[in-house]
Amino acid sequence: MPEDKQTRIRYLIVAILFAVSCFSYGDRVALSIAGTAMAKDISMNPLKLGLLLSGFSWAYVVGQLPSGGLLDRYGSKRIYGFSILLWSICAFLTGFAGYLAASAAFTAIFALRLVSGLAQAPVFPGNGRIVASWFPTRERGLASAIFNSSQYFALLIFAPIFGWIVHAYGWRSCFWFMGVLGCVLTWVWFKNIYGVREHPRISKSEIEAIESGGGLVNTDQGTSARIKGSPLTWSAIRMLLSHRMLVGVYFGQYCIVTLTWFFLTWFPIYLAQARHMSILSVGFAAAVPGLCGGFGGILGGAISDRLLKNGHSLSSRARRRSWRGWRSR
């Protein structure tokens, strides 16, 4: 552990969270960019294509609460890391499933999308958990905005790449590309992600700065023993669902995810089928909403941190008042 110089390992951590989250959303974008060519190749009608796009979401929703419990019990590094590897394998196998007969190909790909949805469920609970551990309170708004912006930057980064890959090598290559990239990211994850106190390259001064600023540096220490005596109960779930501020967060998240999911899934297909754009043009056009949403999301996190540093409350009502005050400056 470095003793003399101040390290900034937490910025590496949030960069990795951003990269992995982009990869997670990129996996979802792959199906929408490749969907038109895939549908022609394995004789899928719009209903079957819709089932492929929706099946991922069904499994993703079902996996949310269990994934949170697994993260608490076994730690973020282990559960999140194995999740990356699992959905990468699913992506790689999806490419090979395209060689099956049409009905068998659809069934295999649908099953792989279900598994991939379950595997990706720990991503955002894990991101929030890691940021709470690694960042002092005053920096969490921007750090959270960075990994949240991945859902938009994934379009910006991957849509043009997939458009070119489908044009040059066919739709199966999109999934092979994601499978190989996922294996690389899995190695990066296990090489660099640790608990705050366990990281081999962090300095004592950075640990002290994180802890004194409100970072939950002991989150992953003794996880199994600590959770064993306090399992998640239905009464705790009812409490979470009845808290007014949390209900507001849930509602806001639902609205933004609905919009984001359209741009991630059906928007590229709409451009290709209804607007008759080439696959290369679709890739670039689909990236535009991601560009705007990504920078807007990071700006929102920066503003949130600024308000907090200026002494405003974390409560939603105080944030609304402080936002009006900030705008009038």
Describe this structure in words.
With 329 residues, the chain is mostly helical. The chain has a single domain, classed as Up-down Bundle (Growth Hormone, Chain: A), CATH 1.20.1250.20. Helices cover 79% and strands 0% of the residues. It contains 16 helices and no strands. The protein has helices at residues 9-41, 46-62, 64-74, 76-97, 102-120, 123-134, 140-148, 150-169, 172-192, 204-212, 223-228, 234-242, 244-264, 266-273, 279-309, 316-327. α2 (46-62) packs parallel to α5. It is globular and about 60 Å long. Residues 224-229 and 316-329 have low confidence and may be disordered.
Instruction: State the domain count.
Output: 1
- SSE pattern: HHHHHHHHHHHHHHHH
The helix fraction, in percent, is over 70%
Helix-and-strand structural type? mainly alpha
Query: Under CATH, the topology is which?
Result: Growth Hormone, Chain: A
Helical region count? 16
Strand content: under 5%
The number of E-state strands comes to 0
Q: Quick one: CATH superfamily?
A: MFS general substrate transporter like domains
For the largest beta-sheet, the strand count, sense and barrel status come to: none
Are there runs of 5+ residues with pLDDT below 50, and where?
A: 224-229, 316-329
Straight-line N-to-C gap:
44 Å
- Shape-level CATH architecture: Up-down Bundle
Instruction: Please state the average pLDDT score.
Output: 79
Whole-angstrom Rg: 21 Å
Principal-axis shape equals globular
The CATH class: Mainly Alpha
